[in-house]
Specification:
239 residues; four-stranded mixed sheet; two-stranded antiparallel sheet; alpha+beta; 8 strands
Length: 239
């Protein structure tokens, strides 16, 4: 209903097509539509990008204390959807933010957040596969739009809850996986993650420095991130 209501306003419909029709494409990064991920989706799903009215959403969630007391153990989790088709100066305006869920405390949902998200995911899956019939008040015609989740925005602990990835311990990096470089500090008993110089280009000056880092030069290559299919295969294997 919220999306149907947006399409009944001619001005809003015009704005919802900004990324596909009015965006300035000069190689500068001003908006998610300028990113390589956006272009990759365009190449992967040409039928989706062919309709500028199709929406790309961002899912954002994190815990908060509505009572303003940092010492309280209460944790409420709002789940927002932001529209990325509109100009960057409007993406985060209250009018275009959709609070789809409000998971009340007193405790955080943790890994069980998928239970709360299940109805939302089912609706988003339907919007991706079947689409939504709306009336375009700008062009004065009926059309069927589709919706996709372009990205998620959250901190690292919330990322672990949403994705099911491990974000604690010795192998906490979702990019490095089993090749995560980590050590446990002797006195504070905390695990820290090293080996970041692996991601620098080969021949970078920092790779050869020893004294400024851990006493060793870095000659290893950056680990290759797993694809979505490889991650799903590992999850099924663990189960």
């Amino acid at each position: 209903p919220r999306l149907r209501r947006l399409f009944t306003n001619p001005r809003d419909v015009e704005l919802l097509q900004w990324a596909g029709t009015c965006r300035k494409d000069d190689g500068m990064l001003r908006h998610p539509a300028d990113s390589s991920e956006w272009r990759k989706i365009d190449m992967t799903f040409p039928d989706f990008c062919g309709e500028p009215r199709n929406l790309r959403l961002e899912l954002c969630t994190d815990g908060m204390n509505p009572y303003g007391n940092m010492s309280s153990r209460h944790s409420t989790w709002p789940v927002f959807l932001c529209i990325y088709n509109i100009p960057p100066w409007l993406c985060m305006k209250r009018k275009y933010l959709m609070m789809s869920l409000l998971i009340s405390g007193p405790k955080q949902p943790g890994n069980d957040i998928d239970v709360f998200l299940a109805p939302l995911i089912e609706e988003l899956e339907k919007l991706w596969k079947e689409g939504l019939r709306v009336y375009d008040a700008y062009k004065k015609e009926w059309c069927t739009i589709r919706v996709m989740i372009f990205c998620t925005v959250n901190d690292f602990p919330a990322y672990g809850n949403l994705s099911g990835c491990r974000t604690k311990g010795y192998k906490a990096c979702p990019v490095c996986g089993e090749q995560t470089c980590s050590i446990r500090l002797q006195y504070c008993k905390k695990i820290v993650y090293m080996g970041h110089r692996r991601f620098l280009r080969v021949g970078h000056a920092y790779r050869g420095k020893k004294k400024e880092f851990n006493g060793m030069s870095e000659r290893r290559k950056a680990p290759v991130p797993l694809t979505g299919k490889e991650v799903c295969a590992k999850v099924k294997h663990i189960k």
